[in-house]
Specification:
- The complex is a heterodimer.
- Helix content of chain A is 70%, strand content 1%.
- The two termini of chain A are 44 Å apart.
- A two-stranded antiparallel sheet of chain A has the order 1-2.
- Chain A has 15 helices and two strands.
- Chain B is α+β, with helices and mostly antiparallel strands.
- Chain B is 44% helix and 10% strand.
- In chain B, α11 runs parallel beside α20 and α20 runs antiparallel to α21.
- Chain B starts with a helix and ends in a 5-residue tail after the last helix.
- Classes of the chains: A mainly alpha, B alpha+beta.
- Chains A and B meet through α2 and α14 of A and α1, α4, α5, α20 and α21 of B.
């Protein structure tokens, strides 16, 4: 008994064990939220109907996976949806420098009050739910009552209101704009934090060397932020097919459906609206596989070109 | 050592707090989709303190007030029900009702809840398939097991219960649900759609309307007279919405009614009552009224009559437009009475029914098994006795009279001969829906906008077999006279109201009585898949730029739908419908 007690105290005294204990809650959380849900993949192998026990449902094997490619319309859908997903994600990646630029310029503002005000105002939209964003969008852009159309008509620029919301034109772009409006301030926070990590002495040294403001930004600030930028870029590549559904869900209508249906929304529409849970599970499994592949490719190319990688 | 201990203590505290926090977050995350849980929890937290107080004061009695959550798919309101109805229900059965928000995503919410394995205390389903799924998942309580608590239900809904046990129990032979609004007598009074701005219609000389598309030129002339409402906002011929769409553009159903065609929600068929016997056909058939309706919308849009925001707005937005006089034609009476106040009606302004000449109107026929809206108590209900008490009350004559006519002694009463009558005060509440009753809320919004247990034509044996609905009661001398608007209409049509007019002219056709076929899993999925194509393309067709685009979209829709299997569905459904028609006689007594 005594020796056992001794052993225990010894274990708890070991630094590694204590650290492991500290991280344990997080490991549990990761297991609960990231690995346990994978059990749900099994639904793709059955013809699942909500309400019935899984084992009471018909086992269909890989039917749901083959259907994605065997059924002409399903394949057409998948291709279209992948196009939308990648298209919108790539626009997002192409403009992923924006939050960094925003942070840099924000930091250049001399007046502290003004800077804080701008930062707060640009961060707030992140906390507005998409449903509310849509009602704002409706109030702004509806054809004859929306204030944008009314303004344009009153100014004599337009004769008739433009139906911005029910339009199949520029869907990707307008979705990107809404997303940027909502997320710009929030995404800049990471860079604002990174800015404080840049050694002030470098700026002083540059000032002594006669560097101007833009030169300081170009030669010190931006190189200082680039590592953060690349880590975030890699992570966003892993999230390439993961662009969420809320935004597209609230904005979707018959006109823009062809261009707005991203993978997540498609999974929702197939499962919840089309009452085909098993098929939509299969589609979302496909999504995970694509994501993991993309992450590995991106990580490898980063290792080769920049010598940096996330793992 | 001390410092170490302290550190350990803080670490433990922090991690446990984080764990608890994240678990709590997960709990609320699982509650449902999107914004809904937010509003739910809000109403809950607002309601709770008050309720606790009430529960405390009521503790003196033997019963505590039980809060029951109700998911009602055909519901247009949400939150804890308050006002005169809620107070009376609390007194009668000790229950308050919280309606879970459904909006236009009720089906999806139901599916998510079914997936979780537990349904809210009381559920009102929209179709038989949903019931069957829930019974199969063993999520509902059988009324038969609580018979002693349900005397009124068993007395007043015997046939719906029998049908539920026979057809909706997956062979278990018990009634897990009950059809609402069972209709055993045809109504003798009432109005039918479509509603047209009658004052403007008369101004342009009441042109004859012989087909659906004839409404268009009429609407155009009316729009020319009144291009904007009093506030200067643009006036449209039609303003529609997509909220109720499932397998097709739902508002077509209402245009079907005044064209003699019944469209069945959640399917791909319509039944044409213009021929005898009625014919079942695909909504994509070249003669289908559905396609005619889409064409009607397309023409309307080309003529600038269709509200361009139709595709992006919600039911509420459209109803508000109707209420503020911005819509000339209503496919139903949504918002009509908000616009045509008694004062306006006295000036002869407002919407009245204007039918297609000689075209039959279909109407709900006798439906002894009730509508496909059926009500069940969930197995997960923590207080099934209270839920059963509530259901029983709803199906009792007292409960039905309350729901249909308001509180006894205030809006209505019984005279010395035992006949019900509307009180003088009652008419005031009826005319002004915003006027608050003594226990709060107006006559109409005090009652939850959801299912009704007994049909208005149901005869109440306690009151000399008078029907429940007050529109069938004898009027007292103080009853408000018909307004000028109604007088005008009555004179023009030589009838009291729509039903009177249509009956006189032999134009009112009741639906055949039938228990609608229950879709199989495959058929349900097929209908949903085809429906997605049909709904999307229908909206695009309505807003197509020109004939070429319209025709291309139409061809694409039909081709895609047929390739996915719409014809198989129609064939299957027609067969099942014929079978159901034969079986129906078992429930007609």
């Amino acid at each position: 008994m005594k020796s056992e007690g001794k052993k225990k105290t010894r274990l708890i005294d070991q630094g590694g064990f204590r650290l492991w204990l500290l991280s344990l809650p997080f490991l549990i959380l990761i297991f609960l939220f990231s690995y346990l849900p994978l059990y749900g993949w099994v639904y793709a192998l059955f013809d699942y109907k909500p309400g019935r026990a899984l084992l009471d449902c018909k086992f269909v094997g890989l039917d749901n996976f083959t259907r994605m490619f065997a059924d002409k319309y399903a394949l057409e859908d998948i291709v279209r949806v992948m196009k939308n997903t990648l298209g919108m994600s790539l626009i997002g990646i192409a403009t992923s420098g924006l939050p960094m630029m925003f942070a840099v310029f924000l930091a250049e503002i001399k007046s502290k009050h003004y800077r804080k005000a701008v930062q707060t105002l640009t961060t707030i939209p992140n906390f507005i739910s998409w449903v509310l964003v849509y009602s704002v969008a409706y109030a702004m852009f509806s054809v004859n009552d929306g204030f944008v159309n009314r303004l344009l008509m009153d100014l004599g620029i337009l004769d008739e209101g433009i139906n911005f919301l029910a339009s199949s034109k520029h869907v990707w772009l307008s979705m990107w704009l809404w997303g940027t409006w909502k997320g710009l301030g929030w995404s800049a926070i990471m860079y604002i934090a990174a800015l404080t990590g840049i050694d002030q002495e470098q700026y002083e040294a540059a000032a002594v060397d006669g560097a101007g403001r833009m030169q300081k930004i170009w030669h010190i600030t931006i190189p200082g932020l680039l590592p953060t930028y690349f880590v975030l870029l890699l992570l966003s590549i892993a999230n390439l097919v993961n662009n969420g559904m809320e935004q597209y869900f609230v904005f979707q209508n018959a006109m823009n459906k062809e261009y707005i249906e991203v993978l997540d929304l498609y999974v929702y529409n197939q499962g919840m609206v089309g009452i085909n849970y098993s098929y939509s599970t299969a589609v979302s499994i496909l999504k995970s596989i694509v994501s993991v592949t993309l992450l590995f490719v991106a990580n490898m190319s980063s290792k080769l070109t920049r010598g940096e990688s996330i793992f | 050592m001390k410092a170490k201990k302290k550190w350990r203590f803080w670490a433990l505290l922090l991690t446990s707090a984080m764990l608890a926090g994240s678990l709590a977050a997960c709990g609320s995350d699982n509650a449902g989709e999107g914004q809904a849980p937010e509003t739910e929890s809000k109403t809950e937290s607002q309601a709770e303190p008050k309720e606790e107080l009430e529960a405390d004061t009521d503790d003196a009695g033997d019963d505590e007030i039980v809060k029951l959550q109700m998911l009602s798919l055909p519901s247009n309101s949400s939150g804890v029900v308050e006002g005169w109805w809620a107070e009376e229900v609390k007194r009668q059965v000790g229950v308050t009702i919280e309606l879970i928000p459904c909006g236009d995503q009720g089906e999806q919410k139901l599916n998510a809840l079914m997936g979780s394995g537990e349904l809210p205390d009381i559920v009102c389903f929209k179709d038989y398939k949903q019931v069957e799924n829930a019974v199969m998942g063993d999520m509902l309580l059988a009324y038969d097991d609580y018979k002693e608590l349900l005397p009124d239900l068993y007395a007043n809904a015997e046939i719906p219960l029998r049908y539920a046990a026979d057809k909706l129990s997956c062979g278990k032979g018990k009634a897990y649900t009950v059809g609402t609004d069972a209709k055993l007598f045809m109504e003798t009074r009432g109005d039918k759609e479509p509603w047209l701005r009658y004052d403007l219609y008369k101004q342009i000389g009441s042109p004859e309307i012989t087909s659906l598309n004839d409404y268009l030129s009429v609407l155009q002339q009316m729009q020319e007279i009144e291009p904007a409402n009093a506030d200067g906002q643009k006036v449209y011929g039609l303003s529609i919405w997509k909220d109720w769409d499932r397998t097709f553009m739902c508002l077509a159903m209402f245009a079907g009614k005044f064209s003699g065609v019944e469209m069945i929600e959640g399917t791909l068929v319509e039944i044409d009552y213009n021929v005898n016997p009625p014919k079942v056909r695909s909504i994509l058939d070249e003669d289908s009224l559905y396609l005619k309706f889409i064409d009607f919308l397309y023409q309307a849009n080309q003529m600038g009559l269709l509200d361009p925001d139709s595709m992006t707005q919600r039911f509420d937005d459209a109803t508000n437009k109707m209420g503020s006089g911005r819509v000339l034609m209503g496919l139903g009476n949504w918002g009509v009475s908000d616009f045509a106040t008694p004062e306006k009606q006295e000036e002869g302004i407002g919407h009245m029914p204007v039918f297609v000449k000689d075209s039959p109107t279909v109407t709900e026929g006798l439906q002894p098994i009730g509508r496909t809206w059926t009500v069940s108590v969930s197995k997960a209900c923590k207080n099934p006795e209270a839920a059963m008490r509530f259901i029983n009350y709803m199906f009792s004559f007292d409960g039905a009279m309350l729901q249909r006519n308001g509180p006894k002694g205030i809006t209505w009463d019984v005279d010395e001969n035992g006949n019900p009558y509307v009180t003088e005060e009652g008419y005031e509440y009826m005319q002004d829906g915003k006027k608050e009753l003594p226990e709060g809320k107006g006559l109409y919004d005090g009652c939850p906008q959801t299912w009704a247990a007994l049909h208005i034509t149901t005869q109440n044996p306690d009151l000399n077999n008078t029907p429940i609905g007050n529109s069938f009661w004898e009027k007292k001398e103080y009853a408000p006279k018909d307004t000028k608007l109604v007088d005008m209409w009555q004179e023009d049509y030589d009838a009291v109201d729509s039903i009177d007019y249509l009956t006189k002219n032999n134009l009112l056709i009741p639906f055949q009585f039938v228990g609608y076929p229950i879709l199989t899993d495959d058929m349900e999925q097929l209908a949903a898949r085809v429906g997605d194509v049909v709904t999307t393309n229908s909206w695009k067709m309505a807003f197509a730029k020109d004939d070429a685009e319209y025709e291309a979209l139409k061809a694409e829709m039909i081709e895609k739908a047929e390739n996915i299997g719409s014809n198989d569905f129609v064939e299957w459904w027609t067969g099942e419908y014929d079978k159901a028609l034969e079986e129906a006689s078992d429930y007609l007594e």
